[in-house]
Amino acid sequence: MAYLVIACQAMLIGVFAASTVTKVRGKRAYADFRRSVEAFGVLSPSWSRMAARATVTGEAGVVLLLVLPSTAPIGFALAAALLCAFTVAIALALRGGKTAPCRCFGTSAAPLSRTHLIRNLSLLTVSLTGLAAGAIRTDPARDPAGLTLSLAVAGVAALFVVRFDDVAALLKPSASDRHHTARRS
Q: In this structure, are residues 95 and 41 in contact, taking their beta carbons and an 8 Å threshold?
């Protein structure tokens, strides 16, 4: 179980660190993120500004808490709470017909979609898995090969999540593919 916890920690650290850095790397990046939160139409403009600040602060907190084994359970719990809030906000925005771009990882122009819900629910599963696995007392991770494999899997998974919009766009059928499929039916 120790390697599973390490993999969950490392993946979430990578995802939340990338998310935080892309939002605060400059005034324009943060302003774009803040405007995207407002464009979701879930909160008033003043509450959206507070939610944007809370998001960045919470994401940075997740990274800091997950780094240390002693605070990792709190980090997993905070990650789960944030992901629940993000998922609800996206679901409400979609229900309201909003298609604002998701600026979760910077400059993506991909509009909100169900794929963002799937991504967040997957990350929520990772958070809860790390929390549950960490609650089970096991021997500490001491095998270098196991540790290396855990970190490698976490790195690939984090990269996949960070580039999720690009991967989803690659897998989405083009308009001409949908047209040909419809004609064959």
A: no
